[in-house]
C-alpha cells in the first residue's frame, strides 16, 4: 500500500518538473530529497528520461529528410553568397574611397551647424541677459544717485520681467537674492529721508509760518487798496495762481531729486516780494517715500507712521513756552510754528491722494484750536500792558486770517478775542486810573490863565467850551476851569481811541463796535474816573478852594458829555439816536462827584467852624453887665471874618451850592452854640453868660443879614438862628408868661423854643441862683427870684407832662 502511494507521489513530482519553469524546480526537488525514497525516484527519473529520448529520436527520424534537403540547398546558396560578398566588399571599398571627401565635408558641415546653433543659442541667451545686466547697472547708478523711486521701479521690472527670461544663471541667482535686500535698503533710506524731512520741517515751521503770515498781511493790505495786480495770493487762491515753476519747486513731482526738505529761495526772489510759504519747502521726500511704500504694498504702514509723527510734532508745536507772555516775540514764534505746521499739512492734503484726509486735518485743527485758546487765555491773563495786549490782538487776527485763507475755521479765535477784550478793558482802566490820578496830583486847582488868542484857542480845541461873555473880555483872562478839564477830556478821547483800535479787524458791525466802546467808556466814567474824583475830594489837605474848583471842573465836564457822545458816533458812524444804543453815564458820574464835593465843602466848612468854636471860652458864671455895651467874642469875630473870605471865593460856584454852604454854616453855628448851652458838663449858667451869648448871636445875625452869598430872599438866612434867638429872648426878657400862655399856638412868639430845652437851661440857672451867694436866703430879691424860677420850672414840667399825655 505504501509503495503505491510512493509511486503516485513520484509521478506527481515528475509531472510537476515537466510542467514547471526550471527556476521554480528547487522546492520540488527538495521534497524528493527530504523523503526516504531517493533511489527509487532516481530510477523513475531515469526511466522517464529514456522515454523522452525515444520520443525525440522518433521525431528526428521523422524530420531528417527535410533537414538534409535544407542543408543541400544551403550549400548551393553559399557559393552565390561568397560572390555577392566579394562584390559588396568591392563596392563598399569603392564607395568608401569615393565618399571619403564627402564624409569630411559633411563632418565639417556638421561642426559648422553645431557652432551656428551654439552661436544662436548664445545670442538668444545674451539677448535675455544683457537687459538684466544693463538694468542692474542702471539700478546701481540710481542707488548711487539716491534716486530711490526710479530704482524701485527698475527693481520691480528686473524681478518680474527680465530675470525670468534670463534663465538659471549664477549671476541671476545672486541678483534675485539681492532684490529683497535692495528693497529693504530703499525702504529704510526713504524712511530715513522722511525722518530728516520731518525733523527739518519741525525746525523750520516758524520760518514757514512767518512767510505765510507775511503773505496774509500783504494780501490784506492789497485787499484794502485799489492795486489792480496783486503779487501774492493766499491759500487756495494763491495755489491756483502760482506759476508752474513754483509748483515744481514745491515738490509736486515725486521723481524730484531735491532731498534737503527746505529750499533756499532767497536768491531767487526779488527783494520787494515775499516768497510763497510752500516755496520754502521741498516735499519730494514725502512723495518719494509715499510712492516707495505704495509700490512695496506698505502704504498703510507709511500713512500711520506719518500721521503718528505729525501728531507728536503737533503736540510739541502747541506747547507754549512758559515765558511766552513776556514779549510779543514769544507769541509770534508760537503762532509761526502753528501756521507752519498747518500750511505743510494743507499742502500735503491737496498734493497727495489719501496720505492725509480732510477728517484727519480737521481733527488736528480742533485739537490745536482748543489748546491754542486755552494757552492764550492763560498767558494773556498775565499781561498788564495794554499795548502788548493790542499787539497780541493784531497778531491773533493775522494768525486767524492766515489760517482762514487755508480753509480752517477760526470763529473760536474771534470769540476768544472778545473775551480778551474784557481783559484789555480792565487793563486800560488800570492805566487810565494811574493817568487820572497823575492829572489830579499835578493839577493846581486854579483857573487857567490865558494871555493870547492862540492859547485860548489851544485850550478850547482840547475840550468843548463856549462862553460868549468870556470871549468878549480882553486878554489876559482866565478860563473858569483848571488844567484838569482839558487833560481829562483828552484822556477820555484817548481811551475811546484805544478801545476803537482793539475793535478793528474783529469782523464786528459798526453798531457792535459803538456799543462796545460806549460800555467801556461808561466803565471808565462810572468806576475809574468816579473813584479818582472821590480820591481828589477825599484826599488829605484838600482845601475849600480846591473843592470849589472840583465842582467847577465837574460842571464843565458834565456839559462836555454831549460832545463826547458825538465824538463816539463820528468815529463809529453810528447815529447817537440809534435804537438800543447805549447812553453814556458821564452826566450822572460828574453830578455824583459834584455832589460829593459839595458835601465835602459843607463838611469842611463845619469842621473849620468847629475849630473856631473850640476856642470859645465863655464865663458861664459871669455877672449881668451894667450899662456898657457888650462886645462879641474874639473867636466869633475871627470865625465871621473867615466865613466872609471863604464865601467870597464861592462866586464861581452855582448859586445853589453857595447858598446851601452858607445856610449849612449858619445852621451849624447855631446848633453848636445851642449845644454849648446844653452841654451836660456846664452845670451852671448865669444871666450874664446868656447876655454874652446873646451878643454873639446878634453878631451872627448881623453877618447873615449882610448877605454873604447872593440869592437869599429877605431874611431867609436869619432863620438859621431863629431857635437860638427865641430861646435867648425868652430868658433875657424873662417873658415866661407869654411863652406859657401861647405855647402850642401857631402865632406863639416863642414857637421854636422847646420846653425840654427851656427846662434844662432853667435847671442850670436855678443851680446858679442857689450857689451864687451863700446868703441868698437872707435877701428878699434873691428869694423872690428863686421862687420865680421854681414856679416856672414847675409850670414847664406840668406843660411837658400835659403834652406828653
Structure write-up:
The chain has 805 residues and is mainly α. The protein has 26 helices and 2 strands. It has a two-stranded antiparallel sheet.
- Proportion in helices: over 70%
The low-pLDDT segments are: 226-272, 773-778
From the alpha-carbon coordinates, what is the Rg to the nearest angstrom? 67 Å
Report the sheet-strand fraction.
Answer: under 5%
Sum up the overall morphology in one term: rod-shaped
Helix count equals 26
Write the element-wise H/E pattern from the N-terminal end onward. Answer: HHHHHHHHHHHHHEHHEHHHHHHHHHHH
User: How would you sum up the major sheet?
Assistant: 2 strands, antiparallel
How would you write the strand order of the largest sheet? Answer: 1-2
Mean pLDDT: 79
Structural class: mainly alpha
Termini distance?
187 Å
| DSSP strand count | 2
Amino acid at each position: 500500500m505504501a509503495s503505491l502511494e510512493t509511486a503516485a507521489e513520484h509521478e506527481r513530482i515528475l509531472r510537476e518538473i515537466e510542467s514547471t519553469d526550471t527556476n521554480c524546480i528547487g522546492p520540488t526537488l527538495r521534497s524528493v530529497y527530504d523523503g526516504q525514497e531517493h533511489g527509487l525516484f532516481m530510477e523513475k527519473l531515469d526511466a522517464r528520461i529514456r522515454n523522452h529520448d525515444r520520443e525525440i529520436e522518433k521525431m528526428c527520424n521523422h524530420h531528417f529528410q527535410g533537414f538534409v534537403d535544407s542543408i543541400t540547398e544551403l550549400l548551393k546558396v553559399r557559393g552565390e553568397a561568397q560572390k555577392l560578398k566579394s562584390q559588396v566588399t568591392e563596392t563598399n571599398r569603392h564607395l568608401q574611397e569615393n565618399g571619403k571627401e564627402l564624409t569630411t565635408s559633411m563632418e565639417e558641415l556638421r561642426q559648422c551647424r553645431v557652432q551656428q546653433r551654439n552661436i544662436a543659442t548664445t545670442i538668444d541667451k545674451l539677448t535675455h541677459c544683457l537687459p538684466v545686466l544693463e538694468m542692474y547697472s542702471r539700478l546701481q547708478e540710481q542707488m548711487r544717485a539716491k534716486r530711490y523711486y526710479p530704482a524701485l521701479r527698475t527693481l520691480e521690472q528686473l524681478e518680474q520681467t527680465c530675470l525670468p527670461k534670463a534663465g538659471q544663471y549664477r549671476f541671476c541667482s545672486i541678483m534675485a537674492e539681492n532684490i529683497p535686500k535692495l528693497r529693504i535698503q530703499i525702504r529704510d533710506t526713504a524712511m530715513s529721508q522722511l525722518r530728516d524731512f520731518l525733523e527739518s520741517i519741525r525746525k523750520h515751521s516758524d520760518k514757514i509760518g512767518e512767510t505765510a503770515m507775511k503773505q496774509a498781511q500783504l494780501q490784506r493790505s492789497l485787499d484794502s487798496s485799489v492795486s489792480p495786480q496783486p503779487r501774492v495770493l493766499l491759500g487756495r487762491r494763491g495755489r491756483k495762481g502760482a506759476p508752474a515753476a513754483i509748483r515744481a519747486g514745491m515738490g509736486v513731482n515725486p521723481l524730484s531729486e531735491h532731498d534737503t526738505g527746505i529750499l533756499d529761495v532767497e536768491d531767487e526772489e526779488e527783494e520787494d516780494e515775499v516768497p510763497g510759504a510752500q516755496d520754502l519747502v521741498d516735499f519730494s521726500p514725502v512723495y518719494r517715500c509715499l510712492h516707495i511704500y505704495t509700490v512695496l504694498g506698505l502704504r498703510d504702514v507709511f500713512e500711520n507712521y506719518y500721521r503718528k509723527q505729525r501728531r507728536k510734532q503737533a503736540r510739541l508745536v502747541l506747547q507754549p513756552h512758559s515765558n511766552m507772555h513776556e514779549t510779543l516775540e514769544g507769541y509770534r514764534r508760537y503762532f509761526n510754528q502753528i501756521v507752519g505746521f498747518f500750511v505743510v499739512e494743507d499742502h500735503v492734503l491737496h498734493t497727495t491722494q489719501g496720505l492725509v484726509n480732510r477728517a484727519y486735518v480737521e481733527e488736528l485743527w480742533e485739537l490745536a484750536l482748543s489748546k491754542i485758546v486755552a494757552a492764550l487765555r492763560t498767558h494773556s491773563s498775565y499781561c498788564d500792558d495794554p499795548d502788548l495786549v493790542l499787539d497780541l490782538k493784531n497778531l491773533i487776527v493775522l494768525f486767524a486770517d492766515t489760517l482762514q485763507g487755508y480753509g480752517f475755521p477760526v470763529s473760536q479765535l474771534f470769540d476768544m478775542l472778545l473775551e480778551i477784550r474784557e481783559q484789555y478793558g480792565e487793563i486800560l482802566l488800570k492805566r487810565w486810573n494811574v493817568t487820572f490820578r497823575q492829572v489830579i496830583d499835578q493839577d493846581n486847582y486854579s483857573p487857567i490863565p490865558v494871555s493870547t488868542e492862540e492859547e485860548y484857542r489851544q485850550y478850547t480845541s482840547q475840550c468843548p467850551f463856549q462862553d460868549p461873555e468870556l470871549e468878549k473880555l480882553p486878554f489876559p483872562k482866565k478860563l473858569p476851569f483848571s488844567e484838569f478839564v482839558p487833560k481829562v477830556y483828552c484822556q477820555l478821547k484817548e481811551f475811546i481811541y484805544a478801545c476803537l483800535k482793539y475793535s478793528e479787524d474783529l469782523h464786528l458791525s459798526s453798531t457792535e463796535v459803538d456799543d462796545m466802546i460806549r460800555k467801556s467808556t461808561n466803565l471808565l466814567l462810572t468806576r475809574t474816573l468816579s473813584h479818582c474824583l472821590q480820591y481828589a475830594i477825599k484826599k488829605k489837605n484838600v482845601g475849600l478852594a480846591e473843592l470849589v474848583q472840583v465842582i467847577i471842573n465837574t460842571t464843565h465836564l458834565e456839559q462836555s458829555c454831549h460832545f463826547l457822545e458825538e465824538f463816539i458816533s463820528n468815529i463809529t458812524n453810528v447815529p447817537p439816536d440809534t435804537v438800543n444804543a447805549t447812553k453814556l453815564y458821564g452826566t450822572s458820574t460828574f453830578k455824583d462827584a459834584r455832589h460829593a464835593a459839595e458835601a465835602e465843602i459843607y463838611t469842611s466848612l463845619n469842621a473849620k467852624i468847629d475849630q473856631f468854636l473850640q476856642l470859645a471860652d465863655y464865663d458861664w458864671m459871669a455877672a449881668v453887665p451894667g450899662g456898657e455895651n457888650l462886645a462879641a467874642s474874639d473867636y466869633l469875630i475871627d470865625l465871621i471874618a473867615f466865613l466872609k473870605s471863604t464865601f467870597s471865593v464861592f462866586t464861581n460856584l452855582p448859586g445853589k451850592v453857595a447858598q446851601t454852604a452858607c445856610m449849612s454854616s449858619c445852621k451849624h453855628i447855631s446848633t453848636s452854640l445851642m449845644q454849648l448851652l446844653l452841654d451836660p458838663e456846664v452845670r451852671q449858667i448865669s444871666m450874664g453868660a446868656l447876655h454874652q451869648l446873646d451878643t454873639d448871636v446878634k453878631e451872627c445875625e448881623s453877618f447873615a443879614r449882610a448877605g454873604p452869598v447872593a440869592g437869599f430872599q429877605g431874611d431867609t438866612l436869619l432863620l438859621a438862628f431863629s431857635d437860638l434867638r427865641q430861646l435867648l429872648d425868652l430868658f433875657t426878657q424873662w417873658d415866661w408868661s407869654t411863652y406859657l400862655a401861647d405855647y402850642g399856638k401857631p402865632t406863639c412868639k416863642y414857637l421854636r423854643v422847646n420846653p425840654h430845652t427851656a427846662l434844662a437851661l432853667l435847671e442850670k440857672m436855678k443851680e446858679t441862683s442857689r450857689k451864687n451867694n451863700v446868703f441868698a436866703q437872707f435877701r428878699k430879691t434873691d428869694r423872690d427870684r428863686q421862687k420865680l424860677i421854681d414856679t416856672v420850672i414847675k409850670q414847664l414840667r406840668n406843660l411837658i407832662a400835659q403834652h406828653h399825655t
